[in-house]
Design brief:
The structure holds two protein chains of two kinds. Helix content of chain A is 60%, strand content 12%. By secondary structure, chain A is of the alpha+beta class. Chain A has a two-stranded antiparallel sheet. The termini of chain A are far apart. The model of chain A has no long low-confidence stretch (mean pLDDT 90). By secondary structure, chain B is mostly beta strands. Chain B is globular, with a radius of gyration of 15 Å. In chain B, strands 1-12-3-8-9-10-5-6 form an eight-stranded antiparallel sheet, with no helix packed on it. In chain B, strands 2-11-4-7 form a four-stranded antiparallel sheet, with no helix packed on it. The model of chain B has no long low-confidence stretch (mean pLDDT 93). Helices cover 0% and strands 49% of the residues of chain B. Chains A and B meet through β1 and α1 of A and β1 and β2 of B.
Chain lengths: 81, 173
């Protein structure tokens, strides 16, 4: 199975292929580097989603406590703005 | 009065592309402007788009003011990436079909021996309730004159067919 490709365009008018997109197959090393980058991005995204979930759960718990203290839904919403 | 001159352009073909590079950029202009209309491989609503100057892989700092249609927020170095400059989101495959995100990147004094700043206006487009608008101030500490620019997407995903990138030279005299 061929590797993914990238596009390179020479912007020098003296260049034989000036303005002509060259489709270049990625080397195995480049593909490996992209894979590492993709895995790191996935880990980072998972960590961000976990943090966002924790924040959402904390907010929900805080709203419940405010409601138990007698605040109305409108008052709790106003505090969140 | 500034004059814009199209240097060249790229259109991603069938099969997509992992990156798009403009090399051997003439040093005869004052500034550069890049206009991108693109769609990415992500199954979500957006792909992060990045720009690398020459072979520089460090010293990038992005300050992002962004909105998603219902709220506004700010962040520093989105996606936690400092090895290239974040230039805003583009449409992912989870957006309305055949619809592309658009952005403009302006690089003043790209041939100077100073650090390189560039600013970005960027939007994703979709027939839905969530879109992303980014306004970015970027700085790269490299003092090299810019001779090449490479564009990639987050998570090593590919630009999809029909994506276009135009690079313009701007002469201010």
């Amino acid at each position: 199975m061929p590797n993914p490709t990238r596009i390179e365009i020479c912007c020098d008018k003296e260049c034989q292929n000036f303005g002509v997109p060259q489709e270049i197959e990625l080397t195995d090393a480049e593909v490996a580097a992209l894979t590492v980058e993709a895995e790191a991005a996935a880990e980072r995204k998972a960590a961000e989603e976990a943090e966002a979930l924790a924040i959402a759960q904390a907010k929900e718990a805080a709203h419940a406590k405010l409601a138990a203290l007698g605040l109305t839904t409108e008052e709790i919403a106003a505090l969140s703005k | 009065m500034a004059a814009y001159e199209l240097i060249t352009s790229a259109t991603v073909g069938v099969g997509g592309s992992a990156s798009v590079s403009f090399s051997s950029i003439s040093q005869s202009y004052t500034d550069l402007k890049i206009v991108i209309s693109a769609r990415g491989q992500s199954t979500g609503v957006n792909n992060g788009c990045f720009m690398q100057i020459n072979s520089v892989t460090s010293g990038y700092n992005a300050r992002d003011l962004y909105a998603d249609g219902s709220s506004v927020a700010s962040s520093t170095n989105p996606y936690g990436v400092t090895s290239k400059g974040f230039v805003g989101a583009i449409n992912g495959s989870g957006t309305t079909s055949n619809t592309f995100g658009n952005k403009e990147i302006y690089i003043p004094n790209y041939t100077s021996s100073n650090a390189k700043s560039f600013y970005v206006d960027s939007v994703t487009e979709t027939n839905g309730t969530t879109v992303y608008m980014d306004m970015l101030a970027n700085l790269c500490t490299t003092t090299e004159a810019i001779s090449s620019l490479t564009f990639t997407l987050d998570s090593s995903e590919s630009f999809l067919a029909g994506s276009t990138l135009y690079i313009y030279g701007v002469k201010n005299a």
